[in-house]
């Protein structure tokens, strides 16, 4: 067994770094860290992720399915504001749901596509 200390970063594949950088930084609001010719390093508070140019076709989910996605926590007020903000920006919300009971992650979840159809989830947990 390997005893991990945490998550260093994760990678999101993109086809156009400039377009994706604009979307993730200016539309969603993540922080820019640095970039090179095939990666843009971003962060949200203490969590890092990397937009990486993919030479392969990016097609994680058929249609508006959302099983393959990346989720970020938001609080209740931000969830409501973000939903309106995304819609006003022309970003299609593909699912807005609420889960309770024995689900692993309960509360409200809002799903939308990035420019490459990667699915992003905003999650308002009902647990403290």
The topology string of helices and strands comes to EHEEEEHEEE
Radius of gyration: 15 Å
Number of domains: 2
Count the beta strands.
8
Q: For the largest sheet, list the strands in their spatial order.
A: 1-4-3-2
Structural class: alpha/beta
- Our measurement of the CA-to-CA distance between the termini, rounded to an integer number of angstroms, reads 30 Å
Approximate strand percentage = 35-45%
Helix content: 10-25%
Mean pLDDT score:
95
CATH homologous superfamily descriptor of the largest domain: 2,3-Dihydroxybiphenyl 1,2-Dioxygenase, domain 1
Which CATH C-level class of the largest domain is it?
Alpha Beta
Spans where pLDDT lies below 50 across 5 or more residues: none
The name CATH uses for the topology of the largest domain is 2,3-Dihydroxybiphenyl 1,2-Dioxygenase, domain 1
Shape: globular
Task: Describe it.
Helix content is 20%, strand content 39%. It has 128 residues and is α/β, with parallel strands linked by helices. The strands form 2 sheets. The chain has a 4-stranded mixed β-sheet, with helices on one face. A hairpin with a 2-residue loop joins strand 3 and strand 4 (47-53).
Task: Describe this protein with a few key phrases.
128 residues, four-stranded mixed sheet, 2,3-Dihydroxybiphenyl 1,2-Dioxygenase, domain 1, single chain, alpha/beta, 20% helix, 2 domains, 39% strand
In short:
The chain is α/β, with parallel strands linked by helices and 128 residues long. The protein is 20% helix and 39% strand. The chain has a four-stranded mixed beta sheet with strand order 1-4-3-2, with helices on one face. Strands 5-8-7-6 form a four-stranded mixed beta sheet, covered by helices on one side.
